[in-house]
Amino acid sequence: MTANLLDFDLEGLAAFCERLGEKRFRATQLFRWIHQKGASQFDEMSDLAKSLREKLTVTATIRGLGIISQHISTDGTIKWLFDVGAGDAVEAVYIPESDRGTLCISSQAGCVVGCRFCSTGHQGFSRNLTVGEIIAQLWFAEHFLRRRLGTEERVISNVVMMGMGEPLLNYEPLVRALRIMLDDHAYGLSRRRVTVSTSGVVPMIDALGHDCPVALAVSLHAPNDAVRDGLVPLNKKYPLRELLQACKRYLAFAPRDFITLEYCMLDGVNDSCAQAVELVSLLGGMDNAVHWCKVNLIPFNPFPASGLTRSPRGQVAAFAKILTDAGIVTTVRKTRGDDIDAACGQLAGDVQDITDVQKRMLRRRTIKLNPVLEFDRMVTEDSVHG
Ligand code: SAH
Ligand code: SF4
Fold first, then answer.
1. pTM of the prediction?
2. From the candidates 17, 22, 91, 212, which is the catalytic residue?
3. What is the tens place of the pLDDT at every residue in 213-235?
4. Does domain 3-61 have CATH number 1.10.150.530?
5. 66-385, what's its fold?
6. Whose CA is nearest to atom 19 of ligand 1?
7. Is 166 annotated as catalytic?
8. Does the N terminus or the C terminus of the chain have fewer Cβ atoms within 10 A?
């Protein structure tokens, strides 16, 4: 089988070039063509010798992912569902803001952790994504958006590993993909603008600190082990105290001077004022985490199988006030792309029945496209629907 060049970081590509009897520096040229220019055909690569292009045509491909659907929200958020074969699909979401463009990407098809409030978790685990499958989400989205916006400038400035899957349980491919994101010959993203979100795989938090420190977000969701055990089953293996100690250790390597703690607000489960007070004392008692953590309160995106509901707005505000009054920097996540279920895991949960998804999408003011090459048409349709 031919090698998929999306699987290689620069070092891997250099080794591949050597195997072809080429100088290592050719890898840099090739890498730039693929990631900076979005090339998918070797004959586009005009400054590579014809003999090399011919060798590449025989031994390699640049193979992205098939697209099952694309939905564009009225607020500009775009969600793609990618086909990763054997009935599995993963999603990526682009969220435009005035000062940045964020892409949320997936690391696994399904997830083994099985959090109660997460629709990915309810699907179970299918498999790890390869480096190429992780990076293909960024490669596709970046170059699609440049074409759509008619620019050669970078569009995606931030990447968050907050799509499907637990990134730290797919560690080696994750780190290689992160290195491609950070590489100046590829996407050149700053470490501060690439975030790994984890449900708390403690040993792998330490490993990431050594191997590829990027911004870290930890899915806390509870002020004590009893509540967290019921929401994030991994807590039984790595309880809160150990998790927060790992966060503290990570700070020594982190590109930012804080760790983000994500807290999904679930009505009557983890959102009471007493639980906010408990969270303050948990963080206060942990090496003064009050000063090196930021708490991000996330409105829950409900799905029927969870049996859970979103906390009322007023309760989120009251919870936030208790944290803020205690000196904890607290933000409430804005919901984006609500009309297209753009939150993580929401669409793929329905993928078993694509027909249903199609019917549902038709009822919405969104566009669904099957073939990858219909983008130009989409721009016109979008201006009608948008
Ligand atoms: N597995 C990693 C990263 C993917 S989940 C993790 O758990 O951190 C990314 C974020 O989305 C996590 O904070 C997760 O708790 C949150 N999340 C999952 N399902 C959600 C839902 N239905 N509503 C709101 N947030 C959700
Ligand atoms: Fe997996 Fe994260 Fe969902 Fe938990 S919240 S099931 S760790 S993807």
1. 0.90
2. 91
3. 999 999 999 999 999 999 999 99
4. yes
5. TIM Barrel (3.20.20)
6. 118
7. no
8. N
